């Protein structure tokens, strides 16, 4: 049985402040294959990494400059730019970028396109796949469509918390490689349907050993988890 890709949800968010460089570096230490993060666009067009569209004091990120955002923090850790995440861990983790704020597709794709083409990451070698250094995904499938139009070479994904009658209709509509689906909306039939179209299933957010093992038995391709250490303990490389 091929093990799934282990994706650190907002970095190693159980060990460090989510979506910070500390969390992403900790994900490397714990043995994650990839990290998932959230991106927003500042008033001057810089892509920064933060979950909510507003900061702790209620200021919208879209109304602040990158310099102003850099003065704020999450649990004492600076709010990073997407560029700084790649500089810090981009040669050790694949980076999955969730397009959160309006107008983030163009800037995010530009950052990804500027990254040097690196050697295949370890997880690629293990599965004989080249997934690339980064990808984008969103609940707002219009942003995914914009990404497809601007740079079709960068892989895309669609986020869903539902089970449509046609389970892959959203992915087909934007030619998404990855189907990101909330764990309770995944079953074996869905995994088979996605694989039949040569797409991937990424389950989120997976926190229990039982769920990890069940999803792996069904052939899920990626586990987005808050508990990287648990996932690694279950799927140790031979």
Question: What's a quick, concise take on this entry?
Answer:
This protein is α/β, with parallel strands linked by helices. Helices cover 34% and strands 21% of the residues. A hairpin with a 2-residue loop joins strand 4 (73-74) and strand 5 (77-78).
Could you characterize what this model shows?
There is one protein chain. This protein has 238 residues and is α/β, with parallel strands linked by helices. It has one domain (5-37, 81-234): Alpha-Beta Barrel (TIM Barrel). Helix content is 34%, strand content 21%. The protein has helices at 21-30, 66-70, 82-89, 104-114, 122-127, 141-150, 169-173, 188-196, 209-218, 228-234, and strands at residues 5-9, 34-41, 47-49, 73-74, 77-78, 94-99, 134-138, 156-160, 178-182, 200-204, 222-225. The strands form two sheets. An eight-stranded parallel barrel has the order 1-2-6-7-8-9-10-11, surrounded by six helices. Helix 9 (209-218) links the parallel strand 10 (200-204) and strand 11 (222-225). Helix 1 runs parallel beside helix 3 and helix 4 crosses helix 6. The longest helix has 11 residues, at 104-114. It is globular, with a radius of gyration of 17 Å. It starts with a strand and ends with a helix. The model has no long low-confidence stretch (mean pLDDT 94).
């Amino acid at each position: 049985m091929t093990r799934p890709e282990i994706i650190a949800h907002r970095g190693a968010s159980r060990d460090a402040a989510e979506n910070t460089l500390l969390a992403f570096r900790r994900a490397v230490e714990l043995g994650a294959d990839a990290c998932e993060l959230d991106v927003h666009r500042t008033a001057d067009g810089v892509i920064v990494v933060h979950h909510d569209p507003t900061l702790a004091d209620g200021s919208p990120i879209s109304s602040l400059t990158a310099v102003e955002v850099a003065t704020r923090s999450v649990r004492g850790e600076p709010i990073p730019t997407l560029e700084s995440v790649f500089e810090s861990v981009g040669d050790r983790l694949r980076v999955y970028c969730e397009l959160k704020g309006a107008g983030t597709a163009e800037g995010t794709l530009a950052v990804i396109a500027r990254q040097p083409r690196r050697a295949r990451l370890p997880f690629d070698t293990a599965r004989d796949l080249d997934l690339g250094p980064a990808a984008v995904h969103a609940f707002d499938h219009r942003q995914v469509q914009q990404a497809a139009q601007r740079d079709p070479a960068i892989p895309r994904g669609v986020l869903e918390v539902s089970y449509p009658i046609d389970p892959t209709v959203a992915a087909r509509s934007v030619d998404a490689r990855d189907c990101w689906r909330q764990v309770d909306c995944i079953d074996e039939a869905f995994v088979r349907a996605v694989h039949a179209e040569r797409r991937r299933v990424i389950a989120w957010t997976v926190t229990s050993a039982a769920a990890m093992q069940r999803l792996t038995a069904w052939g899920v391709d990626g586990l987005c988890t808050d508990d990287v250490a648990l996932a690694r303990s279950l799927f140790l490389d031979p």
